[in-house]
Amino acid sequence: MKLNERSLAFYATCDSPADNAGFLYKRGERHTAYHRRWFVLKGNMLFYFEERESREPVGVIVLEGCTVELCDSAEEFAFAIRFSGTKSRTYVLAAESQAAMESWVKSLSRASFDYMRLVVRELEKQLEEMRWGLAGGHPGCRHTPGCWKPQPSGPEQLPERLPALPTIPPKENGCAVWNNVPAADQLPDAGGCDGDANPRPLPLLPRRRASSGELGSTGAAAAESSSTFCRLHERYGREVARLRQDWLDRQRDHRP
Amino acid sequence: AVLKKRLVKLVVNFLFYFRTDEAEPIGALLLEHCRITKEEENVFSISFIEEPERKYCFECDSEEQCQEWIEALKRASYEFMRRSLIFYRNEIQKMTGKDPLEQYGISEEARFQLATRKQ
Questions:
Q1: Residue B96 included in any domain
Q2: What span, in angstroms and rounded, lies between the C-alpha atoms of A175 and B45?
Q3: Which of A102, A154, A217, B70 pairs with A139 at a CA distance of 20 to 30 A?
Q4: In sequence order, what DSSP letters do the residues of A169-198 get, joined into one string?
């Protein structure tokens, strides 16, 4: 499967701040030897480089539909990134200290786009309820989303306008899954609203569910993205192996 | 340029494209640091910051569909979501005096701090 690899490499190496970076040991796919690599987490992508100074990553792990868990290994401070689907590779990584391991497990398990989307939706709901005074419950209120104008504060760029809550039903062949929040013109019902306006708990993320088979509340979208990503993994893994071989060959050719 | 009919799926920050009769995608575009531009009627393009002259063009069935896709793709990046999150957090904090991320235990994460984001 083709990927816009240059864009990926650009994203990995451009000067936008990384969400986490450091050395980790990565267990090889076929052999159990661990190789020390420089890892950079940006958004939902975990890139790894041969060395810290390398100009291009040798690989990337797309962190969607995965679980991050500690694992039993002869190696200390080891953890695994697992994907659903039997054909998907499990990545076993090891940190150099307990603190580093904990930091990586935390940041990786919250790195997915799905997670961000959940948090953003929660905040969006909270903000909307506050603005329209629905915390106490006023069934008569109608509200239209998207009528807010974000006030730019400071040099940071903010979205040009807030994501509009959709009036169209979700389409498989079309709109971003991201747009598929429950329609805003439905008032939150009494069951959904905490009368005392306490923030409701973050919905359980799939990884916290007891059964590992179930993908959880994001339903079809999550199932779709994880099955597609399982395949994306495999494909990209093969491509990366080929790229790496090309890179190694080029290195050999350049040796005096 | 030849137009080929493709099934296109936007999944998180990737745009997958398929031959219409196949289950496996032929390819995918990572939608970070990209620009979505309206071209002529029914047509939009995606270009990337490191190669701005190269445009991936898509022709839609209608102007309406074209606009839908443009809007969806503009919001598709992880970076856009991050900015939205920071914006909402800020708004809620201004209104309530409390940081809404505290309850999730993520308020200290560097990726959500206003000051550290350059873009």
A1: yes
A2: 16
A3: A217
A4: ---TTSS-GGG-SPPTTSPPPGGGS-TT-P
Helix, strand and coil percent figures for chain A, each rounded to 5: 35, 15, 50
At B57, which CATH number?
Answer: 2.30.29.30
Same domain? B19 vs B67: yes
The residue whose two tokens read 């936007």 is B10
Cα–Cα distance for residue pair A226/A83, rounded to 1 Å: 8
Quick check: B73 and A177 CB within 8 A? Answer: no
Residue A58 identity (one-letter amino acid)? V
CA dihedral A182→A184→A190→A194, nearest 10 degrees, is: 90
Residue B70 lies in a domain: yes
User: Which of helix, strand or coil describes residue A146?
Assistant: coil
What are phi and psi for residue B52, nearest 5 degrees? -65, -20
Contacts of A168 in chain B (CB under 8 A): 68
Residues B46 and B59 in one domain: yes
Where do the DSSP E strands lie in chain A?
2-3, 20-27, 34-42, 45-49, 59-62, 66-70, 78-83, 91-94
Pick among B90, B111, B117, B119 to test the A interface (most A CBs inside 10 A): B111
pLDDT digits (tens, 9 = 90+) for A64-88: 999 999 987 778 899 999 998 777 8
Structure tokens at A55: 């100009």
Q: Where are the domains of chain A?
A: 5-114
**Average pLDDT for runs of 10 along chain B of length 119:** 89 94 93 94 94 93 96 94 92 89 81 59
* From A8, A16, A176, residue closest to B76, measured CB to CB: A176
What ipTM did this prediction achieve?
0.87
Quick one: tokens of B24?
């496996």
Which tokens in the block code for residue A104? 């990586």
Domain assignment of residue B25, given as a range: 7-76
* C-alpha to C-alpha distances, A193 to A125, A216, B89, B95, nearest whole angstrom: 11, 21, 20, 19
Output the six-digit token pair for A139: 């069934």
Quick one: tokens of B61?
A: 């069935």
